[in-house]
Design brief:
By secondary structure, the protein is of the alpha+beta class. It has eight helices and six strands.
Length: 403
C-alpha cells in the first residue's frame, strides 16, 4: 500500500470517528464527541507527504476527445462545441441591361443583392473571429480552473492567496466569455435585419414578373436573380439558426460556470475540494433568500422525519462543509427537485436568559449553514429555515431534512 493510500485510510478513520449515523441510509451527524458519550483516544500516525503532494506544478491528464467521458474533479467539463460552418454567399450573376423598365428594375435589385451578400460576408468574418476569441478565452479559463482544482485536490491552506489570485483570473476569463456572448447577440441582431431585407428582395423579384413592358430576356434574368436571392435567404436563415444555437449553449455554459466559481470560492476559503455547484444538479434558479419561519415554542413536538444531516456546534469552527456537500449532492442525485428544511435546534434547559442566548446562537448557526448551501450553488428557493427548542438537545445543532 502506498503512503498516500495509507494516509487516506487513516484520515477517513479519524473523520468517521467523530460522526454518528442516523441510519445506514442517511449521512452522519457532525459532532466532536463520540455518539455513545465515551471519549475515544485516536492514535496519531505521522505520514510523510507523497511525491505527488510535494510536486508544486502537477500535470493534469488531458480531457477525452470530443468532450466524451466523465470529467474528474480536477478537470472542469469541456465548454460546448461552437458551430464551424463558413457562410459564403453564392454571388450575383452579371447581365447586360436590356434597357426596358423591367430591365432597369432587375439591375437595381441585382445591385442591392450584391450589397447584401457583401454584408453577409462581413457577418461571417465577424462570426469566425468571435468563435476564435471564445475558444481562446475558454482554454485560458479551463487551464486556470484546472490548476486551482489540482492544488485543492492535493491539499492546501485555507484562503491560499495564490489560489485566490487564480480564481480572480478565472473570473476575468469568464467575464470575457460573457462579452463574447454579447457580441454574438449583437451580430445576431444585425443578421436578423439582413434577413428581413433579403425577404423583401425576394418578394420584389417575384412581384416584378407581373410588371408590363418586359421582354423574354428580362424574365430569364429575373429567374436567375430570384434563384440567387432565394439561396441567399436560405444562407441567412442557416446563419441565424447556428448563431442562436451558439448563444444558447454558451449562455447556459457560462451560467453553470458562474455557479461553479461560487462553489470553488468556498472551497478555496476552506482549503478543501468539493466539486461542481449544486445548482447544476438542482436545475433551478436562485430566488430571494429564505427567512425564518415562526419559531416553535412551548410544548416541544419532535419532528417525525429523519434528518439527512445533524450538525452539532459543540466547538468552534466545526468542519461540516465537506460532509454537508456530499450529503446534499447525493440527495439531489436521487431527487433532483428536492428541497431542504433547516431547523435550528437549541437546548431548552437552563434559565430563561440561557435559553434565549442558545436560541439566538442556533439561529445564527442555521443562517451560516444556509449561506454555505447557497455558496455551494443550491438555490435559496429550495431552502426553508425554522427554529425550535428541545429538552433532549445538549448543544446547539442544525438538523437538515429533505422535503
Amino acid at each position: 500500500m502506498s503512503r498516500a493510500s495509507h494516509a487516506l485510510l487513516v484520515g477517513t478513520a479519524l473523520l468517521l470517528g467523530g460522526c454518528s449515523y442516523v441510519s445506514d441510509s442517511l449521512w452522519p451527524s457532525l459532532t466532536g464527541d463520540d455518539p455513545a458519550g465515551e471519549s475515544v483516544a485516536a492514535e496519531k500516525v505521522a505520514v510523510a507527504p507523497s511525491k505527488a503532494e510535494q510536486n508544486s506544478a502537477p500535470t493534469l491528464s488531458p480531457a477525452a476527445p470530443g468532450g466524451q467521458g466523465t470529467p474528474s474533479l480536477s478537470t472542469p467539463a469541456a465548454p460546448p462545441q461552437l458551430g464551424t460552418t463558413q457562410f459564403v454567399p453564392p454571388g450575383v450573376t452579371s447581365f447586360q441591361n436590356t434597357g426596358t423598365y423591367v430591365g432597369q428594375k432587375i439591375a437595381q435589385m441585382r445591385q442591392e443583392l450584391g450589397a447584401l451578400q457583401n454584408r453577409i460576408s462581413q457577418r461571417n468574418a465577424s462570426l469566425q473571429q468571435i468563435r476564435q476569441m471564445t475558444a481562446q478565452n475558454a482554454q485560458r479559463y479551463h487551464g486556470t480552473i484546472a490548476a486551482v482544482n489540482a492544488r485543492l485536490q492535493l491539499g492546501t491552506t485555507p484562503g491560499n492567496p495564490v489560489l485566490v489570485n487564480q480564481w480572480n483570473q478565472a473570473q476575468a476569463e469568464l467575464d470575457r466569455l460573457g462579452a463574447d456572448i454579447a457580441a454574438m447577440n449583437s451580430l445576431a441582431n444585425e443578421v436578423a435585419a439582413d434577413s428581413s431585407f433579403a425577404a423583401y428582395l425576394l418578394e420584389s423579384a417575384r412581384a416584378t414578373y407581373g410588371l408590363s413592358g418586359a421582354i423574354d430576356q428580362d424574365h430569364k434574368q429575373l429567374a436567375v436573380l430570384e434563384d440567387e436571392t432565394n439561396r441567399t435567404v436560405v444562407l441567412i436563415d442557416r446563419l441565424l439558426n447556428e448563431l442562436s444555437e451558439d448563444v444558447s449553449r454558451q449562455t447556459a455554459y457560462v451560467a453553470n460556470e458562474r455557479s461553479n466559481l461560487t462553489t470553488l470560492s468556498l472551497a478555496i476559503k476552506n482549503g478543501e475540494l468539493y466539486g461542481t455547484s449544486l445548482a447544476n444538479r438542482a436545475f433551478a434558479a436562485a430566488s430571494a433568500p429564505a427567512s425564518f419561519a415562526p419559531q416553535r415554542t412551548g410544548n416541544f413536538a419532535a419532528d417525525t422525519r429523519r434528518p439527512l444531516v445533524v450538525i452539532r456546534f459543540d466547538r468552534p469552527d466545526v468542519p461540516y462543509q465537506q460532509a454537508l456537500y456530499t450529503a446534499v449532492s447525493r440527495a439531489l442525485e436521487r431527487r433532483p427537485q428536492a428541497s431542504f428544511d433547516l431547523v435550528a435546534v437549541s437546548p431548552s434547559k437552563g434559565s430563561a436568559a440561557q435559553v434565549a442566548l442558545a436560541q439566538s446562537k442556533s439561529r445564527k448557526y442555521a443562517e451560516k449553514v444556509m449561506r454555505t448551501l447557497i455558496d455551494m450553488g443550491l438555490p435559496a428557493s429550495r431552502i426553508t429555515l425554522s427554529a425550535t427548542t428541545s429538552p433532549s438537545a445538549s448543544t446547539n445543532e442544525v438538523d437538515i431534512y429533505v422535503r
